[in-house]
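Hi team,

As requested, here is the filled-out complex form for the pyridoxal-5'-phosphate run. I kept the field names the same as last time so the parser does not choke. Let me know if anything looks off before we queue the next batch.

— J.
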Amino acid sequence: MGGVNSPVRSFKGVSREYPIFISRAKGSKLYDEDHNEYIDYVCSWGASILGSADPRVVRAVKKAAERGLGFGAATKYEVELAEMIRKHFPSMQLMRFVSSGTEATMSAARVARAFTKREKIIKFDGCYHGHADGFLVRGGSGLATFSIADSAGVSESVASFTLVARYNDLKSVEAAIERSPNEIAAIIVEPVAGNMGVVPPVEGFLKGLRRLADECGALLIFDEVITGFRVSLGGAQALFGVTPDITCLGKVIGGGLNIAAYGGKEEVMKLVSPLGPVYQAGTLSGNPIAVAAGISTLKLLSNSTYNRLEKISRKLEEGFKGASEESGARVLFQRVGSMLGIFFNDKLNAIRNYDEVATCDRKSYSIFFGAMIDRGIYLPPSPFETIFVSTAHSDRDIERTVQAAAESFRSVAKVL
Ligand SMILES: Cc1ncc(COP(=O)(O)O)c(C=O)c1O
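And here is what came back:
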């Protein structure tokens, strides 16, 4: 369908007619069907924190495959993975594995509704929580006033249960709560937004959400599908010291395969069937191959992994900054660990929310993307996505990337 099985994989967002078709990947490199090599900064949308096809993960996957591809029954390995996760995410007292981030957030919202016996969810403009109907909603011109379905096929009645607030703006959250007092089941947030470029939370924002959720009797859901095991071992909740009621994980916990999880306080999670009345199920949930990939990946992560990711990502950011300044292109970079956002913007000094993201120049990003891919650097094919760095990226990779960026920023400056 359109050549792709997920829309952002098409290169429409960067004004190209066709995407590249990948034949294989190894470490920091991707190869297309025409045998071109690229340094990969998409990293399977953040999942491949160790780079592609790490031999230790591949070995674990092969071993698991030999034991059986799936049983649709419990295994001790699911328990092992859950315990590894809980060690770093103690707020996930009980958890459930699912197969995608979409399922995790959708189920988290269902549990929150069941726990609070309320119906409305507050989300933030520019945050993405997968494609369940209730999350395909964006803010209208008056934020916290209108909820507009962002996809055909989402009914207005479903959209009306989602209130949209502005990221990094507690006042907009207060306004949403005031509009629907005693009706908010949950506030869901990407604790570092990674679906509108990279937008970090401003000082006090996450703590403020914790306070507002408590005051209005709602649950706080951190969608850490990207940030979990990405920005630190304990995710954004450890990095910023704010504990949510429910956490959603995905991407890194599957080491490149399809597994995700949601979990939280015992009193909340014990509402999920078979312990409680909230129905949620999945034929492939906790698939043993994905679980093996997850266990072997998490075993390889330690504090020193994040120190290395920080060092190499800082080198990339600084290289990009130097290259853009030299070219005369006006570019902002926002980074949290190995998540880096590039914004072509000549008016602002920082990007804090989607309204500000919307003032960035998409055309410049398209030109930059095209110039980079022509030089063997694979960036996200959308100005609203995150550049991910993996432990497989070497100093040499970064140097080659920065060299390509110097030329590519000049291409942007020339066209503008
Ligand atoms: C923050 C966040 N939540 C949820 C999802 C949905 O995950 P999935 O694509 O596995 O359904 C994504 C996907 O990119 C995401 O970035």
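Two things worth flagging: The pocket of pyridoxal-5'-phosphate is lined by residues 45, 100-102, 105, 128-130, 190, 194-195, 223, 225-226, 250, 260 (CB under 6 Å). Residues 303-327 form the longest helix (25 residues).

Thanks,
J.
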